[in-house]
């Protein structure tokens, strides 16, 4: 039975090990205001320690996934460097929470994802987009280069593709986003939910302990040189083999039965 807990800015649904966090301010194009960022941060912190959550889906209400920062809020605080720095630091904190979350995070993208909204998509471990979705880092068009979105974008797509998006500010269609590695899959909007939750369910069926180990190691090794990465991941695998779920998984495979995970 699906449970629903509605926050002011974030809707939270949990079912079968999958928790969906929905940006819920469509009238403001789900912009990442300070309040929205703080609400999302709190939900990510909560779900991080939730043993019943195995996979997180980030979605959005309305026709726009996320239009980036709230420009009205920024305009009202143009003279406050302190506020601006706090805002961008809070946004950076949320993006790092997603990367550091010990559970896989999937972005469900319908509509437009621009600037920090595009950053949000790029920060998720996986992303599934409707074929009508569009992406952009258009800060250059208003004199505010998308410097923080650049961090996530440049770690997901090639340098030249990232630079083209950053320098032109032009919209990128869903199929191009898939080609350059910004999203994993593009599907008809009518089957978007089916595709997202089938993928989430597949992942949720794995050992939570193993997923945690693997996700953490994936991002750590990306920052290493080749030899260091192999040394590091060899140690990770040797340690992983000592886990109860590794023993269970290997035995279940050899015995040709379904494993019974203990998440340890």
From TrEMBL:
Q: Which UniProt keywords apply?
A: Fatty acid metabolism, Lipid metabolism, Transit peptide
Biological process (GO) annotations held by this record are: fatty acid metabolic process
Q: Which GO terms describe its molecular function?
A: hydro-lyase activity
Q: Which Pfam families match?
A: ECH_1 (PF00378)
**InterPro entries noted in UniProt:** ClpP/crotonase-like_dom_sf, Enoyl-CoA_hydra/iso, Enoyl-CoA_hydra_C, Mitochondrial_ECH-domain
Q: Which domain of life is it from?
A: Bacteria
Summary of the function given for this chain in its UniProt record: May play a role in fatty acid biosynthesis and insulin sensitivity.
Name the family.
Belongs to the enoyl-CoA hydratase/isomerase family.
Note the PANTHER family from the entry. ENOYL-COA HYDRATASE DOMAIN-CONTAINING PROTEIN 3, MITOCHONDRIAL (PTHR43602:SF1), PTHR43602
Name assigned to this protein: Enoyl-CoA hydratase domain-containing protein 3, mitochondrial
């Amino acid at each position: 039975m699906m449970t629903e807990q509605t926050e002011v800015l974030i809707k939270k649904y949990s079912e079968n090990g999958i928790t969906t966090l929905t940006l819920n301010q469509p009238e403001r194009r789900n912009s990442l205001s300070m309040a929205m960022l703080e609400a999302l941060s709190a939900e990510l912190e909560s779900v991080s320690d939730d043993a019943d959550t195995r996979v997180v889906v980030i979605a959005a209400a309305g026709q726009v996934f996320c239009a980036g920062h709230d420009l009205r809020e920024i305009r009202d605080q143009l003279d406050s460097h302190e506020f601006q720095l706090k805002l961008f630091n809070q946004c950076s904190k949320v993006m790092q929470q997603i990367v550091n979350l010990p559970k896989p995070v999937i972005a469900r993208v319908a509509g437009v994802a621009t600037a920090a909204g595009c950053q949000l998509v790029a920060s998720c471990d996986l992303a599934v987009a409707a074929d009508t979705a569009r992406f952009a880092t258009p800060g250059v068009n208003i004199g505010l280069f998308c410097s923080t979105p650049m961090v996530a974008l440049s770690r997901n797509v090639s340098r030249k593709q990232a630079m083209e998006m950053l320098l032109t500010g032009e919209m990128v269609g869903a199929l191009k986003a898939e080609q350059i590695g910004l999203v994993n899959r593009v599907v008809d909007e009518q089957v978007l939910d089916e595709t997202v939750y089938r993928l989430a369910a597949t992942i949720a069926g794995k050992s939570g302990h193993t997923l945690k180990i693997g996700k953490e190691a994936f991002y750590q090794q990306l920052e290493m040189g080749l030899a260091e990465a192999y040394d590091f991941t060899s140690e990770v695998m040797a340690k992983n083999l000592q886990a109860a779920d590794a023993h269970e998984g290997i035995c279940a495979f050899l015995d040709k039965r379904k494993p019974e995970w203990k998440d340890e």
